[in-house]
Amino acid sequence: MTRAFTLLLITALAGCGAMNTARPLDRGEHAAGLTLGGPLLKLGGKPVPMPNAVVEARHGVATLADRPLELGYGLNLTGLAYGVVGLQGHVSWLAMEQRGAIPALSVTNRLYFASNHLDARKADPGVWGLDQLDVTASWLLGDAQQQLLYLSLTQNTDLIDPALFLSPGLGAQLDPGEPGGLRVQVESRWYAPGSLPESLALRWVSPGRGALGFNFGVNLPIGPRAEETSP
Questions:
Q1: How many domains does the chain have?
Q2: Which of 133, 135, 126 is nearest to 111 (CA)?
Q3: Which of 98, 113, 168, 214 is deepest in the core (most CB within 10 A)?
Q4: What CATH number does residue 78 fall under?
Q5: pLDDT digits over 62-104, tens only?
């Protein structure tokens, strides 16, 4: 497997499908969620998403330049079944507010760490890590501006062997507009379009370069919404 796609696979297993941070939470807001999916594999001639399940929490902790700053952390549940502990943490900031058709911009940095020390079959277990930088443009849509559409560009950097690994994504978050209601997230991503999908054992769903992926998630807002606390 090429180095780029080894990195892709590690990224998918460590934390692919995290909750979107297109709009960092306001101070005092919290959310917990679960996301499923990842890069698509060809199994029996059909596209099948990697079975990643990631549980995560987000917290609006402060403001920076009068715009929201949040912290979050998560755990990959699927990896635990294979003796791999995958942890992640992030900080996200709303760099620019939406102005009409001009989108809001957020910047998020995530760190992923994984270890297979729980896998007794490994004679030489290891620890590895990734840094993920996301820049996301987003639009709140609808009469009440509750539905969220976003475009993102992600750079994943192997902490041991850094390389350019850009992945564009498109997603939406559907908000029922009810206090305590579940928000639904759907997202598609084109992983590493600059890389060839070469693999000795796996066949990725690909348009010719890189790999295509999809994830689905739900998250539950906890705490007052901004509009509920406004004077």
A1: 1
A2: 133
A3: 214
A4: 2.40.160
A5: 999 999 999 999 998 988 887 888 899 999 999 999 999 999 9
**Rg of the Cα atoms in the chain:** 18
Distance CA 186, CA 215 (A): 6
- pLDDT tens for each residue of 135-153: 999 999 987 778 999 999 9
Closest-CA residue to 215 (of 155, 154, 164, 173): 173
The identity of residue 121, as a single letter, is R
Burial 1-33 (b: 16+ CB within 10 A, else e): eeebbebbbbbbbbbbbbbbbbbbbbbebbbbb
- 3-state SS of 60-72 is EEEEECCEEEEEE
> For 204, which DSSP code?
B
Strand partners, 155: 133, 166
- Half-sphere exposure in the Cβ direction for 133 (13 Å, CA): 8
Neighbours of 183 (CB within 10 A): 21
Q: Are the CB atoms for 190 and 168 separated by under 8 Å?
A: yes
Answer whether 40's CB lies under 8 Å from 212's CB: yes
List all residues 6 or more positions away from 119 whose beta carbon is below 8 Å from its beta carbon.
82, 83, 84, 125
| Verdict on whether the full-model pTM lies above 0.70 | yes
Name residue, tokens 């990631």. Answer: 54
The boundaries of the domain holding residue 80 are 3-229
Distance of CA 110 to the CA centre of its chain: 9
Neighbours of 168 (CB within 10 A): 14
Q: Which amino acid is at 133?
A: L
